[in-house]
Amino acid sequence: MTNLATTAETAEAQRKLKRAKKAALAAFLGGALEYYDFFIYATAASLIFSKIFFPSGDATVALLASFATFGVAYVARPFGAVFFGHLGDKIGRKATLVLTLVLMGAATFLIGVLPDFNTAGYWAPALLVLLRLMQGLSAGAETAGASALTTEEAPTGRRGFFASFAMSGISFGIVLASLAFLPVAAMNEADRLAWGWRIPFWLSVIVLFVAYMVRRSLEEPEVFEEKHDHGELVKLPFAKMFKTHPAQFFQVALMSFETVTNTFMQSFGLAYAVSVGVPASTMLWVSILGNVIAIATQPLMAALSDRFGRRPVFITGVVGSGIMIFVYFSVISTGNIPMIFVASTLITAGTYAMSNAIYPAWFSELFNVKVRYSGMAIGLQVGILCAGFTPLLGTALVGATKANWGPAAWIVAASSLLAVAGALWARETHKTPLRELGNPVR
């Protein structure tokens, strides 16, 4: 009997581990698609869109307009978080995540077929904004849903490690996007502006297909199914979350400001580097190196949080990024390419990886299963919404004086302080059993 019981327990553990690995893979591929799409847009907004989607004239004004379309998606993200968060807590994680995936992929492909300003006039930027809004609606719930599902499927004591694969997927997506844009950056300008920039958008279909095939084979987490089968889910998760988890919502909102670092580096940092004479292709290789290493370092950082706690690892990373960003902009302003590689990699694969790898599990763990998708999705969008407009703010503050990079660095540093405040306020959750996470919801 003992041997039979042991065999049954081993089989059950293996079954759960297989589910956890599939959830982590689905989160990885979903994150890859989301940030492939978002990063090619950020790159195109920095290098292409100001020249083809807006009237010719002042280059700085056109760049501001281009970054404004970049930020529009971040306005849509909270609405996507509310809508898809509601679906995720009502009908399930899987169906909602399939829907967000298809929406993101379709919007990205359609951006690649848009006419430019010379062809369609003001319809061109209008359609660009519409499709960017679709991207934002999808992204508003993608990371939160993937993180919630993976956290709920993860083995005991390894929630941080498994949930972090959503972030490694994001790094992989950035690598793919950078590689896709390298041939575009090498083209002559006429070809690049005429048709070359469209190719990375069309290639997103490949990532979409692979991610869709994996995600549609997922199962609902057992902890969610239990609530569903017993009729214990709430009618309005969005409203119930604010009633039962107000502190957790504001904690996540503050900690979400850690995302400013990456958004700012990948968009404003690229445009700023090009403006001071660093080749765009060089900055793409800088991004590739940092994110390739981050694919590996983020699960390691998350594993540390499983052992030592979410708070110390998260805070160390956020403080480190707030300090290192001054080094990053200083070396860019001097055009010292080897040091640009070093500074950017230390942030992307080091300090930022420390905080970024932790939040999928930690933010999910702060909420009860009945409102987890909504709570994480909506709270996360506060900082991300602000992050979306930081390139616009940085461009306005730095202006045409390229040596005036200080305001840009202080934007990131101030955001890091807000994230630290949220982390100090939030409870430590790495040892709390899955079914005891969050506040009671009745």
Could you please describe the fold and organization of this structure?
The structure is a single chain. By secondary structure, the chain is mainly alpha-helical. It has a single domain, classed as Up-down Bundle (Growth Hormone, Chain: A), CATH 1.20.1250.20. The protein contains 19 helices and no strands. It has helices at residues 2-47, 49-52, 59-90, 93-111, 117-120, 123-153, 159-163, 165-186, 189-196, 198-215, 222-229, 237-244, 246-255, 260-275, 280-308, 310-334, 337-365, 372-398, 406-425. The longest helix has 46 residues, at 2-47. The radius of gyration is 21 Å and the shape is globular.
How do you describe this structure in short?
The protein has about 450 residues and is mainly alpha-helical. The protein has helices at about 1-45, 50, 60-90, 95-110, 115-120, 125-155, 160-165, 165-185, 190-195, 200-215, 220-230, 235-245, 245-255, 260-275, 280-310, 310-335, 335-365, 370-400, 405-425. Helix 1 (about 1-45) packs parallel to helix 14 (about 260-275) and helix 6 (about 125-155) crosses helix 18.
